[in-house]
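Example record used in the benchmark description.
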Amino acid sequence: MAGGSQLDLVIKNGTIVTASDIFEAEIGVEDGKVASISKSLSGQAKEVIDAKGKLIFPGIIDAHTHLEMLWMGTVNPDDFEWGSIAGACGGVTTLIDFAIQKKGKTILEEVEARRQNADPKVCIDYSLHAGVTDLTEATLAEIPKVIQYGCPSFKMFMTYRKEGVMIDDEMLFSALLAMKKHGGLLGVHAENDSIISYFTETLLKEGKKTVAHFSLSRPSFAEEEAVKRAIILAENAGASLYFFHLSTKEGLAAITQARDRGLDILAETCPQYLLLTDDVYLREDGRNFVCAPPIRTKEDSEALWQGLARGDVALVATDHSVSTTRQKKLGDTFDKVRVGVPGIETLLPMLYSEGVRKGRISLNRLIEILCSNPAKVFGLYPKKGTIAIGSDADITIFDPEKKVTITTKRLHSRNDYNIYEGWKVKGYPETTILRGDIIYRNERFCGKKGQGRFIAREPYKKL
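Model output (C-alpha cells):
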C-alpha cells in the first residue's frame, strides 16, 4: 500500500492461479493496478471482496474476435459494445479484433477507422491485428509504422480469393521478411483456396448443395498443405509465424515437426475445434455451425487437446463472429451460408469444464493458454495476462463448483443462438474486474459503454 493510502479494492480468502503457481493470498488494488499481494493485507479498503472457495484468475484474453464485421454482404450483430459485454460476462477483460485493409487503403487508415468505431463503445480493453490484403511497396514501408503505433501482429489470408482478400506466396514471403526486420508477427488463415474452389464447384455440380456437404468442400488437406507451405516460407525467411484457428491433426503434426526443428511456429485453436465434431453439419440447425475452417472429426479434436497439453498449440481464442439465424439462412447453398460462430462468453467455462475437470489440461495450463501466452505472444505481458504487482488489475473470480446449463437466454451476445445450447458445465465466472473496476458480478453486467481502452502493444518477442 503506497504511502499508507487506502486501497481501492481488496480481494481476500481466494486461491490465486497463474500459469506457474497456485496459492492463497490477498490482492490489493490501487489506481487500476495490482498494488500488493500478501497473506494478509493490513489497513482499510474502499471495497472488499470475499472470494472464499473461489479461484482468482488473471483476466481472460480472447486474442481473435470479429466484432461489427461486414462479411458476405451483412454485418454481424455483435458490435464493439455487445461483443465486449458478452466477453466481460464470461471473464474476458481484453480482446484483440481486426482492422482489415481494403484495396486502396493504408493499414493505419483502417486501424484508425476501427478505433473511431470501437473507442466510444467497447466495454473491456482491446487491441487490433492488422489485416493485410493489398501488399504494395507502400504497404511494406508502412509496416514499421504500424508496429510502432502499437499493432505488431498482422494477418494474411491464404484463401478467400473471390472475396478479394487472398494473398499469394510472393506477398506472404515479402511480409515475413518485413516482420523479421521490424519486430512484427505474421499470422495466417491457412487453407488452400484452389482446393476449396475445386471441391466446392464439384459438389455443387453434383447437386450436393446442403450444409451436410459443407465440410467436404474444405477438406483437411487444404489446411495441411497451406500450413506446410507457410512453414517453408517462414523457415526460409528466418521469420516467426502464427497460425490462426488451427483445426486439423495433420496441420498440427506439421507444426509440431517444425517446432521440433527449432522453428518459432505458433498456433492457436478455437473451442469449436476442441469440443464439437463435424456431425453438427447433419443437424437441422447445421447452418449455425458453419465456420472456416470447418469443424472437424473426433480424431482432430483429440489431437488438438493433446497439442494443447504438450505446448505445440500455444493458446485458445474464439474467432467470435456471430450471425443471427436469419443471416445464416440467407444463402441457398452451403457456400453461401455466412461463416462464423459465437464463443467469447463461453470460452472460459467451456475450457475449464471440458478441459481441466476432465483431466485434459491442468489448471495452470488453462491460465497459460487463456491469459499469459496470449499476453506474451501479442505484446501485452506483464501489463496483462498475469496477477503480479504492477500489472493491470484485470481479474476474474471463478466459482469452480457452480453448475450452469448454457442457453442462449442466459448469454449476452446479440445473436439468437449459441453452439453449446444445453451443455452443462461445472465452473463459471462470478466476478470480472477491469483495471480495478467491477464490470460483472452476480450474473449481471455492471460496467459502462466506452469503459474499455485501446492498448498499444509491444513488438513481438519469442515465447
